[in-house]
Structures are given as structure tokens and as C-alpha cells.
Amino acid sequence: MAVERQTLVFYMGIASSGMISQRLIQHGLSASTPVAIIERGTQPEQRVMTSVLGTLAMMIELHAVETPTLLIIGDVVTLYREANTFYNETNALRSAITPRCSVG
Questions:
Q1: What is the DSSP letter of 68?
Q2: Which residue of 59, 60, 73, 99 lies most exposed, with the fewest beta carbons within 10 A?
Q3: Cross-referenced PANTHER family, in alphabetical order (predicted)?
């Protein structure tokens, strides 16, 4: 499974995240391969965290990630980061230039 320019998705993989990252690195993936952790996807309390393969297990422990969770490993995570940054910057700009009106 350790093939560059490929996306891997693990369903319910948080308990095995240390082994997953270790084995993928052993078989050739870079420790700096982007990773997304999606907790409770599509639910109101959804959380999305991004990291790199070498710190995947540490991030899960640090943020007390719970199931249900998806682990997404690969360059596609970079697209998420870029899209999210663009979305946030666009909304911040829109808010800054939108006239404020008050009804009184």
C-alpha cells in the first residue's frame, strides 16, 4: 500500500494508527506524507485535523480522537488544506469589505 501519489483511507483505524504509520514508512512512504483525521464525519460535531504520517499516532492521542474516524493518507490532504485556507481567507476578506448595516 506504500505507493507515492496514492490516497489511502482507513476506516476506524485510530487504534492501529501507530502500526499503520510505522509500516507505511518502513515500506517507503515519507514520514512527511500528509494525513487527515476526520472524527465524526458529516455530524455536527465533526472535527478535521491534519498532520503528517510520522506524527499520526501522536496527533490522535494529543487530540483525544474518538471513533468513528477516517484516516486519509496522501497528497490529497494538501488539496484540503489549500481549499480550506482559500475558503477562510475569502470569507475573512468578504467580511472585511462588506458594509455593516444596523437597523434601529
A1: S
A2: 99
A3: SIROHEME SYNTHASE, SIROHEME SYNTHASE-RELATED
